[in-house]
Amino acid sequence: MNFDVERHRLDFPSLQRKVGDQPAAYLDGPGGTQVPRSVIAAIARYYETSNANAHGPFVTSEETDRIVEQTRERMAALLGAPSPACISFGANMTSLAFALARGLSRLIAPGDEVIITDLDHEANRGPWQTLAERGAVIHSVRMTPDGQLDMAQLQSLLSAKTKLVAVGYSSNSLGTVNDLATIREWSRAAGAWMIVDAVHYAPHFPVDVTTLDPDFLLCSAYKFYGPHVGILYTRPGLLDQVQTDRLRPQSAESPYRIETGTLNFAALAGVSAAVDYLAGYGEGETLRERIIHGMTRIHAYEEELARHLCEQLSAIPQVTVYGQRFGAGLRAPTVSFTVAGADSGEVAKRLGEQGLFVWGGHFYAMRVVESLGLEKTGGLVRVGISLYNTREEIERVCQCVEELLRP
Ligand SMILES: Cc1ncc(COP(=O)(O)O)c(C=O)c1O
Known about the structure:
- By secondary structure, the protein is an alpha/beta fold.
- It folds into two domains: 5-36 and 288-405, Aspartate Aminotransferase, domain 1; 40-279, Aspartate Aminotransferase, domain 2.
- Helices cover 38% and strands 15% of the residues.
- The protein contains 13 helices and 15 strands.
- Strands 4-10-9-8-7-5-6 form a seven-stranded mixed beta sheet, sandwiched between helices.
- β7 (162-168), α7 and β8 form a beta-alpha-beta unit.
- The radius of gyration is 21 Å and the shape is globular.
- Pyridoxal-5'-phosphate binds at residues 30, 92-94, 121, 123-124, 168, 172, 197, 199-200, 220, 230, 364.
- One of its GO terms (molecular function) is catalytic activity.
- Residues 26-397 form the Aminotransferase class V domain.
């Protein structure tokens, strides 16, 4: 495949790091990706040249305003949004989700129903569970043993009482990509809002909110090679109906009405640079075309590695690999497994000692680990593939697991 990973790796200064005499292998992308030099430079440049608060009558403040609005435009291009006015920023996805939940709670009446799922990260469950304080009834959709949503149960839970369906685009623990087109159709027919957690999906696939048409979609830039910034897409016109918490001087207009306090302007400069970086992987006339092409290439490369990892690990008799098959956009390149007789936290620690940075545990997707009955054995070991990972790193993971198993 035409993907020169060695060349792309040169963009990331942190990949030079070693653990003892072993090169660090960053297989922790689902927890946060490494940052390319262009993003680091954009953040530094902001502090060197334009550092100021927003909306002031002098040049550095005007530049700050421009950076914020340019970042909205870049994020609109990344997500396929019709306008930058659909894009709001916050500290991280979780904080934005709680702020949105508080705003939506004022539109909730006792007896309204809310659907969340067992496959989701707690950040896409906890905020909507707070709606129970307003009398909402919360339902959580089961996960099947191979890590998919029980769609029949989801459908059966939907009714005229359903106010909100919160669902992940892709599971951060098993990689499962959910059938959001169907869930969109069902939730719209029920008159419910659909809230999508795209945190794990956005680093691996092109996103198109215009086709998907969610009411709200959230993602987080530190998972796609940027700094720590949360991003909220809202369907045009909808945020104006949400009664957000606001200070008196704060704009009540979209997209500002959910942005409390001073944004992290330097980080936003980095988010813009991260979108440009991803677009740099693609070709096309427009930024959007380059993004779609770039993300498609990145996905193809990552999926091949993830598939290989899955096959290699599955060949080890004491290893169980979880989740559904790869291909046709069904799964993000995230592979979770357990080793018979070993605690997953301990396995991750041993790999870490060899410079293989993987996670062990529940990664805040606690219901997934509970559904699989793995709470007492340390949850899952998760290997996340990002665009800078290599086949050699995958081989090292498999060798290391095999060594752990030697008596
Ligand atoms: C799927 C998913 N949703 C939500 C979050 C929370 O994102 P943030 O750290 O930006 O609040 C994460 C973080 O790991 C995640 O993986």
